[in-house]
Amino acid sequence: MTTADTPLFEMLKRVTTDSLATILLKKGLRNQWVRGPMPLKLDYPRTIGRAFTMRFIPVREDVPGAMARKLPVNRDAVEVMPEGCIAIADARGVTAAATFGDIVVMRMAKRGVAGIVTDGAVRDRNGLLSIGLPIWTTGITAPPPATHLMLAAWQEPIGCGGVAIFPDDVIVADVDGVIVIPSALALEVAEAGLEQERLDEWQMDQIKRGVSLADLAPMPKK
Amino acid sequence: MTTADTPLFEMLKRVTTDSLATILLKKGLRNQWVRGPMPLKLDYPRTIGRAFTMRFIPVREDVPGAMARKLPVNRDAVEVMPEGCIAIADARGVTAAATFGDIVVMRMAKRGVAGIVTDGAVRDRNGLLSIGLPIWTTGITAPPPATHLMLAAWQEPIGCGGVAIFPDDVIVADVDGVIVIPSALALEVAEAGLEQERLDEWQMDQIKRGVSLADLAPMPKK
Amino acid sequence: MTTADTPLFEMLKRVTTDSLATILLKKGLRNQWVRGPMPLKLDYPRTIGRAFTMRFIPVREDVPGAMARKLPVNRDAVEVMPEGCIAIADARGVTAAATFGDIVVMRMAKRGVAGIVTDGAVRDRNGLLSIGLPIWTTGITAPPPATHLMLAAWQEPIGCGGVAIFPDDVIVADVDGVIVIPSALALEVAEAGLEQERLDEWQMDQIKRGVSLADLAPMPKK
Amino acid sequence: MTTADTPLFEMLKRVTTDSLATILLKKGLRNQWVRGPMPLKLDYPRTIGRAFTMRFIPVREDVPGAMARKLPVNRDAVEVMPEGCIAIADARGVTAAATFGDIVVMRMAKRGVAGIVTDGAVRDRNGLLSIGLPIWTTGITAPPPATHLMLAAWQEPIGCGGVAIFPDDVIVADVDGVIVIPSALALEVAEAGLEQERLDEWQMDQIKRGVSLADLAPMPKK
Amino acid sequence: MTTADTPLFEMLKRVTTDSLATILLKKGLRNQWVRGPMPLKLDYPRTIGRAFTMRFIPVREDVPGAMARKLPVNRDAVEVMPEGCIAIADARGVTAAATFGDIVVMRMAKRGVAGIVTDGAVRDRNGLLSIGLPIWTTGITAPPPATHLMLAAWQEPIGCGGVAIFPDDVIVADVDGVIVIPSALALEVAEAGLEQERLDEWQMDQIKRGVSLADLAPMPKK
Amino acid sequence: MTTADTPLFEMLKRVTTDSLATILLKKGLRNQWVRGPMPLKLDYPRTIGRAFTMRFIPVREDVPGAMARKLPVNRDAVEVMPEGCIAIADARGVTAAATFGDIVVMRMAKRGVAGIVTDGAVRDRNGLLSIGLPIWTTGITAPPPATHLMLAAWQEPIGCGGVAIFPDDVIVADVDGVIVIPSALALEVAEAGLEQERLDEWQMDQIKRGVSLADLAPMPKK
Hints:
The structure is a homohexamer.
Chain A: H1 6-12, H2 17-26, E1 38-39, E2 47-58, H3 74-78, E3 86-90, E4 98-100, H4 102-110, E5 115-123, H5 125-131, E6 135-141, E7 149-154, E8 158-160, E9 163-165, E10 170-174, E11 177-181, H6 186-208
Parallel strand pairs in A: 2-3, 3-5, 4-5, 5-6
Antiparallel strand pairs in A: 1-6, 2-7, 2-10, 8-9, 10-11
């Protein structure tokens, strides 16, 4: 997160992932909600950041031994993550081994990473809860990454939970999961999202007063 | 729920879904527990109502534009739901888009709907929790229904979580999930369920006093 | 199939499901290929017809015994199918019981049904092959429908293999599976499909002569 | 649990399933974490015991009526479980019927069973929580076992959640799930696990003080 | 197969698995068709035999090294199979490693085994086809059993493709898959199956002559 | 394929994927068989080549419109494939859209590509069969790639069917599927594979003559 992102992120903090999904659908983007990851704890604040993508592949027992090309590991990736980013991992839906564990997550917290998303699993539930860094994950597990996964690369286009994610996309995560906003659309989506929130509030207010869904009054112009 | 249902529902409030499943199995009904939906919150009271069925199909992008036949929407269905019913949705197991969101659910609460069951997902977890209307759902999501689903009809026979459900079946939902009782069997199942509860209590009492499972005394006649 | 459909169907016979999927995607319809069903035999001719939809739900052991409302059965549906239609069944992906067996299929052949599609299974593989009526199915099985399924209704909007299907949609099925064309779009899709076939042939011809994909010449206007 | 196990179990109480998975992987055992079961409640203490294996198969309606060989039932198994064991069930991943219910679990508690693991489901969530015996389960359900499952045998080698389990293997279960330690390796794994815990603590301490992952100092010898 | 089975098996050769499934359903046995296995080749004759059950569990890398109890292997099981049996394997649905390969299958053929059923996979497709022993399998694979599976026992009650199978059950396998007939019911099921075949033929004959499904004449008594 | 590979590939042509899987397992490589892809036609010759990896991600509707970074397409990749390679695609298991269609495959054939492997699907079954280039695929489909997938990159490490694949790994594909041999191990695996074939033949010969599995004579040294 650069300071240039501050106004954008301030707006997005007031927009639910639900409203963002609605706005993105209206713009023809049907597939921006990441299937699988849910918050490890339900009272994280809404979390926003630029995507730092990580890509995992299945483990191979001869790596690194018999291999010409050395692969990076989680620890290498962590040290290049920019402050305020959201680390988002394509773990291929593998939940029988962790994508992240507590030591790496503690270092990510120290470096100012804003949040973590994985379509795989994390381990050390209690340790992660005490660190407090917000995490959206598909599962909890005990085995270390190397049981099933190897980090192949970072900051490449990835798929995560069935959604395309490019480095620097804007990630918004809350109690209803994770939404990906293409970088070029972020500002207009945020603005339309705020308007959607205003509409929802307007309608909810009428419903509470007993108006039927058919009789909702149109929202007055601001 | 009509007042005619009051005595039946009062009985059922004292019978767990576990005992109902046991009784239904004894009557040859093996498939009355809805696979998937669990309560959004664990402290809802046991919830009972006649089924108001809703049927969803996959979305099609040309609807309603290029289509001769106009489909209804959630909002239409809500306004015809009878007080005390349980709205139960055949969402085809789709959890990447909501079957219901908070505005519609607030209106359902206003109209006196007793509860909601879906084999798909709901969105706006916090909003739904604050409304308080009891909800059994297979998932939480952010995208609106139109991302993947269209309402096709209501009050038809449906499948939900692998179970056949007919309009006006009796739905009982608690912390162990959702049971469907065929309307014609509801009274006898409720009566046998109460007797099952009495048996469980009798047996549990002996177990607590150290009796082995082989030595359980038969329950005295009432 | 009415005689009014003859010119349309003649055009569609010359268009692959691949080209139809391409054209539908260009028109913004991303989800018209039915996931699951494949031809029982690979040398059926391309088969085209108006959709006669059938909707199945999970079986319930008390039906029809304890039930007020009598459900129809396959046999009832067959006798109202119009000549030239394609019977397409929403079997909820259940492949552990047949949607159709050989006696019913023989009657469908007698009545002039053009083809059968199910996202479930059929039984009596050899009998069905000898009848010859073209069938696209997700599985082969032995148990009769009543083991797991009941017919709930026909000529309603359904989902089949993840796709919305309305009565009278145009179904095209070949060796690459089943495509659904919304009725209102059928003519323009067929015309664009024929043009797509011409383009494919033009390009394939160049590729065969060694032209690279980058150097393909544009197709001359007809 | 015999008194001979006391020192081993005391050691294991201080080792997370995460560290055990790491140690087992280093010894070439890649598949010792049971996929599926999670604790019914997050604040159970870490639970350790020798495996008492139970093996379920799909139910058959003619059992026991038309069958020559009588099968045992849960109740028979419970009365032979040794004090301090962990009952671990191969339920074939079936979650539409319970592997265990509250009456049987209460008797298991009375007999001093240390914990329960199933790759299927349990029923009577509230009853089980009030009994307090620690349970790791893949699902919650309402129907009784006989809806889908029959107990076939106990104290045989089984698979559970994709892992081989032999009678008297050492089971360790905590907030990150369930680890199986082959009996012959238990002591050396426990000792290496304690050392792993010391290493984690050493590293975490440095990370908290701002050391980067690349600059971690090696742990001093004890 | 003992000579005592000859008359029973002669009857069953003339009954399809479809008719057997229908008859078993009428007797209240809803779950006797094995989900998954299909014939490796479509022109095997209908194959009938008593079940020789085999039970596999997930592999563990320390077996047999660090294990007290030695497990049997495929080769041991094959040498005790009675002539005319059908070897049926509970492979837990694992298709990433073979349950059987060509050398073992050749020996089974030599010993007079009548057929093989697995809910897992076989390997060496060409070798198996040339041996000719009829095989019903869920998949084809290359890796040997030890990659993922260990034989745990034989002639125990097992589950296979979601169905309970006891040693000496009667297995019937044809082009529509595999049916399990409980031993005690085999004769009456075979007799009713023959009658069902006669009914099907009677009805099919009428349908071919243009009779509608509603107008089928009742079958005359034999 | 360079001429340097000729002797290696000649050896591998005589080794089944089964024997290769056995040898790799003995060397500690448990996960080298690609789950999913099977040959489009059963009589392709065994096909061998160096891996040309392709990586797909889920489609996004704003690509390329609203995106800063332009992605490559299939057509770009094809023009850089070396003669004799096997193009192997990480399609994330998506079978509702093709990874390859007939025009691209014809160009690949023209460029001397040896074979194609995808854990997704191909389209235009008949066209691909007539081109004849050997293809291993998980599914057949009609929709074009852009319906669900975008090519993200080539010649990167990928996962395909649950297996890690690096550029220039040796791919061997036959009637039992696809095996991946790490480049550094290819020669020793090929040599051990030939020896394994000789052992299999030796054993099979004895079995055919009636020797039991227990009595197999050890193979004489060459």
